[in-house]
């Protein structure tokens, strides 16, 4: 064949190798014949033998002998047959926090049921009740006996309202617990309004044994009850009805001051509305302080039209670990829309 430097006796076996998929680089390295010449012969060889050219000609897939690519493919570890899932960091606890509900007679208690239904839906690991669940207006020491504020007040009616509201709050939680096996830890830190019962007994000792904190029936619903102003620490967060400053025990009234004085994440109640502050510890972890003391829908008689217009709701603390958490405020207005 004119114009061809190599005879068919040489090229026939080469074309057969090409047709079987041998690589251009390997044949070129072994024979010294250029890839262009090999391709010309191969196409003529296919016509002479009535064969279809191999498609695709995967010539570049096999590296020449001893090349880096060949060595890598020979000695590199085989790819894993199963790719392990990505490492996901563990998720911390979820804590629901109920601020002051200020339950008393002659108010609509349906908000207690809505809170209970919401908690049953969310199923937190821990539920913290910050105290002042009971208002106890009959033991109010600020209004004088015989004043309009004390008119018609009865201890028995206060207790009945508290027991009713607690039943409304806890019934959805207990029902969901029986249905799904969800068993949240229940923590209740007594507030200054519940402490009115103790102060009344101290002021009038003859009431000892006649009235008392057990009348509230908190423990019967499964709450672990802590005394007024005794902090409870859960996963690096201190909970108390309020935290004191100075020897006189005045409440700390700002979240920023709470971090500055207590040097750890804190959640306090007692004060209407909400306040939040952030800081960092020496190791870089976050500290958060929240003060929120209003989880009721009614207006208070001792407040005016401006001061009664404060935020009301509860909190969900997610991914709680060593004092760090992600806070979510849940307003009672939202619960009204969702459950009414």
Structure characterization notes:
With 340 residues, the protein is of the alpha/beta class. The protein has two domains: 8-75, no CATH class; 93-339, 4-Layer Sandwich (Purple Acid Phosphatase, chain A, domain 2), CATH 3.60.21. It is built from nine helices and 13 strands. Strands 4-3-2-1-12-13 form a six-stranded mixed β-sheet. A five-stranded mixed β-sheet has the order 5-6-9-11-10, covered by helices on one side. α1 crosses α3. The termini are far apart. Mean pLDDT is 88; it is low at 56-61.
List the topology elements:
Elements: H1 8-19, H2 24-31, H3 35-48, H4 68-75, E1 93-98, H5 110-122, E2 126-129, H6 155-180, E3 185-189, H7 195-203, E4 224-226, E5 232-234, E6 237-240, E7 244-245, E8 250-251, H8 255-262, E9 265-268, E10 274-280, E11 286-292, E12 313-321, E13 324-331, H9 332-339
Parallel strand pairs: 1-2, 2-3, 3-4, 6-9, 9-11
Antiparallel strand pairs: 1-12, 5-6, 7-8, 10-11, 12-13
In brief:
With 340 residues, the chain is α/β, with parallel strands linked by helices. The chain has helices spanning 8-19, 24-31, 35-48, 68-75, 110-122, 155-180, 195-203, 255-262, 332-339, and strands at residues 93-98, 126-129, 185-189, 224-226, 232-234, 237-240, 244-245, 250-251, 265-268, 274-280, 286-292, 313-321, 324-331.
In this structure, how is the largest beta sheet organized?
6 strands, mixed
In the CATH hierarchy, the architecture of the largest domain is 4-Layer Sandwich
**SSE ordering:** HHHHEHEHEHEEEEEHEEEEEH
Mean pLDDT: 88
The largest beta-sheet arranges its strands as 4-3-2-1-12-13
CATH topology of the largest domain: Purple Acid Phosphatase, chain A, domain 2
Tell me the name of the CATH class of the largest domain: Alpha Beta
